[in-house]
Design brief:
alpha+beta
Length: 130
């Protein structure tokens, strides 16, 4: 009498292991992509906060004349602020209302995941003359 063994053949085990390994690889890829996206999103948010604070400080803490200002925040975010007198500013605002109009552009750059990334914000500011 021949006993019939119940169980899996070697081929079935190899196929199941291959499918498991492929799906595990896909899951790790999805996880690492999500983690990388989270890090980038956080860094972009912090860079926008730095740029917005620099825009807000023009005319209060910083000079309001033409010029370039630069610095570093948190030893990571390098910022450059460019202040210019707009072409259409003829000085009437300053003489009549005691304010000056300035074009302000802030660029924040940082290194992340092997690349240099940057954002740029710009605005027109009305700054009171003291």
């Amino acid at each position: 009498m021949i006993k019939k063994h119940k169980g899996f053949s070697l081929l079935e085990v190899l196929v199941a292991f291959s499918i498991f390994a492929l799906s595990l690889g896909v899951i790790f890829q999805i996880y690492s992509t999500g983690a990388r996206s989270t890090v980038l999103s956080d860094e972009y948010s912090r860079a926008v906060i730095v740029a917005q604070s620099k825009l807000a400080s023009i005319g209060i803490d910083e000079l309001s004349d033409n010029g370039v200002l630069s610095g570093v925040e948190n030893n990571k975010y390098h910022w450059n602020t460019n202040i210019q007198i707009p072409d259409d500013d003829y000085g009437t605002l300053e003489t009549r209302f005691r304010i000056v109009k300035r074009e302000v552009e802030v660029e924040v750059s940082w290194d992340s995941l092997g690349k240099t990334r940057s954002i740029k914000l710009s605005t027109l500011k009305m700054i009171p003359v003291s």
